[in-house]
Amino acid sequence: MWKRRWIVLSVIVIFIIAVMVFKTLDLKKTLERSMEGYASDVSDQLTGGISSQFASSLTAASLLADHASEYQDSQELADTLMKETEKTEFDSYAVIFSDGTAIYGDGAAEDLKTMPAIQDSFGKGPSVDCVEGQNLLFSVPLCRDGTVNGVFVGVRRKENMQALIQSESFAGKGLNCIVDSEGTVVISPTDVKPFLQLDDIFRSDTEDRSDITKMRDDWAAGRPGVYSFTAVDKSRLIMSYCPLGVNGWMLLTLVPADLLSQETDTYVFHTFFCLAGIILACGLFLAMVLRFYRVGRREMEKAAFTDPLTGGMNEAAFRMKYRSLAEKAPACTHAVIFLNIKNFKMMNENFGMKTGNDILIHIYKKIMENIREGETDARAGADHFFICMRENREDVIQSRVTRMTEAMNAFNEHAAIEYHLSAQWGVCVVDEPDLNIAVIQDRARIACRQYDGNSACCFYTPAMTQKIREEHELNALFDGSVENHDFQIYMQPKVRLSDGRPGGAEVLVRWFHPQKGRILPSEFIPLFEKSDNICRLDLYVFEEMCIFLYRCMQDNRELLPVSVNLSRVHFKNLNFLSEFVALKEKYRIPDGIIEIELTESILFDEQQRELVKETIVKMHEQGFLCSLDDFGVGFSSLALLKDFDIDTIKLDREFFMDITNSKARSIITGFIRLAKDMGIHVVAEGIETQEQIDFLKEADCELVQGYYYSKPLTVVKFEEWTASPRRLFPEGE
Beta strands 335-341 and 250-256: pairing type? Predict the structure, then answer.
């Protein structure tokens, strides 16, 4: 019996060896063909990246040229450009004026103005050119008052460009080079020798002249291709060429043809050697296979149920352990707790991954020290942990959670720089032991997301799930409500204190759904700000406002300035303002009528600050006014008046809650006086009493907005209100 098995096994092994020998004979040719495709694909990807970089550099140069056109003083322009170019990939810059004068940054050659490419930019537009030393120039016309009066030139040095064309593919054995249509090197790699030998290769009589002719035709027509040849040193090489779409330049990629196959012979030898060893060790293998199976199974179980970082249980093991602990227990005897370490990614960025991992291990140990018999815990990945406690009283759970949080932060006692871990705890008391553990874990996660920091932890309630369902329902209703115009604009008047006449209005939005009735802004605005729906809603409200203003113009009625709120979510799209401009032009709204309101908090984001500043400039260029809502809430309000070109500030209603407070009155008076000195209009929000009105008149406030004069009104009621001589306390919402 065993003899037959040995014969069968031998036949199988011999057959496998024969097949492998047969396949190996054709392996090199197959690998070389694969290498051609691989080289072409990598070269094509790299070409796309380089072309994108060229386009990005021209875009950056255009932006800097636009920026440079705003300055008259040469020194101020030079200082500004030096700061701006530090944010780009340019190594230096130059500005060449049509009168022959020029401003040069560090490293820019002073003979740039004589170059044909620079002269061409005065009439032909943006261009890319190479100068001696393989530096690239990105030149863009500099326009002022619609006339080209100079050229902005961004310089990227040879070393910069060599890093751009360097590819990490081909195990470091590939070379890349940019050449022009004549084959002259534009940007060389660090080792240029192989490319300088190409002419000798093309003149070799050993190569197929038709392939060389095809390659030259491809270069002339700007087509990509691959060319395989034998080099002077008898080595086989593959050269892939791809057009960059700039000045007829091509990217050449040179790689060894045997890159994939050079280890084939060694591999075959090792394979045959291993097969021989397998035959000799076959008996031993059969004898030990059972033992290996058992050991492997234990290792697989360990890998499947052990967290590799902490060495404790992972989430899969936690679920199994929970079933053994809680499934047969009475209801409400256990609680599943979800722990999330807030902003842990920032800790990884500030202190490094190793420190972050050490802290996660520290957290796990402290949790283990605080759990009891019949309880368990596990790391669920990243900075998340699950705990199963044998508790049901909320006060006891909160007390234990507090002790765990304190234990986690115990490392601060001897730390030179304290860094407190902010823990968010969500708890689900298990009232249905038969419920799937995945559902219980989801409920604990839901409770964690509702954590507000006012208590040690947040306990799950069915209302939380209901809230999530309602949020999904509101999001699902959004598209239909926009199409059916269930969103309606309301106008809250602004009144001039000098004569009591209307001085404008703020446009607000209200949602009246046919089935759900009125939905409060406090319910849908925060929800829509979590998605792109808020941007669509802002555009909808903006267009409805434009329609109202257009109708006013058609009826020859006075156009009052109107303000509309703009969510900070829009600033994720760098070109968002174009959609608002298109609507303004569609309805032919005059300049200076529409005011866009930004909340003060948007200006505290350092990453967005420059973008917001540039956007405000563009708003003014397109005929919009810009106001700052909730002014005074932030901690650096006065600095904002200096840095941002704001037309109007709206004093937050918090200032007027206790108008009898002398400090509050002094602050308000100071704000109003300062704003007037800076030419900024002031609107007081949330005004409801005669006492507030009297004080604001005394403080010389320009406009007020609030229930004293009017609640937000429908468009029809707003038109009636503006036409009525008595405007106090109209019927509002």
Answer: unpaired
User: Which pLDDT does position 222 carry in this prediction?
Assistant: 79
Give the C-alpha separation, 80 to 229, whole Å: 52
Instruction: Show the CA angle centred on residue 357, arms to residues 353 and 362, nearest 5°.
Output: 145
Helix (H), strand (E) counts: the chain: 24, 25
pLDDT at 729 over 50: no
State the CB neighbour count (10 A cutoff) for residue 6: 13
CA dihedral 333→336→341→342, nearest 10 degrees, is: -100
CATH code of 311-460, in short, is 3.30.70.270
Q: Which residues pair with 651 in a beta bridge?
A: 631, 684
User: Alpha helices, DSSP H only, in 393-487?
Assistant: 394-408, 437-449, 462-483
Task: Give the number of other Cβ atoms within 10 Å of residue 190's Cβ.
Answer: 9
* Domain extents in the chain: 34-262, 264-303, 311-460, 474-654+710-723
Closest CA to 197 of 246, 165, 138, 237: 237
Q: Is the dihedral of CA 35, 41, 42, 43 positive or negative?
A: positive
Residue type, 369: E
The alpha carbon torsion through 430, 432, 438, 441 (nearest 10 deg) reads: -20
* The model's pTM: 0.50
Show the tokens assigned to 325: 């602990």
Distance CA 542, CA 507 (A): 9
CATH 3.30.200.20 is the classification of domain 34-262: no
Exposed e or buried b per residue across 527-553, where buried means at least 16 C-beta atoms within 10 angstroms of its C-beta: bbeeeebbbebbbbbbbbbbebbeebe
What mean pLDDT, rounded, does the chain reach? Answer: 81
CATH class of the domain whose range is 474-654+710-723: alpha beta
| 342-389 confidence digits (pLDDT tens) | 878 777 777 788 888 888 998 999 999 999 888 999 998 888 999 999
Buried b (16+ CB within 10 A) or exposed e, 222-253: eeebbbbbebeeeeebbbbbbbbebeebbbbb
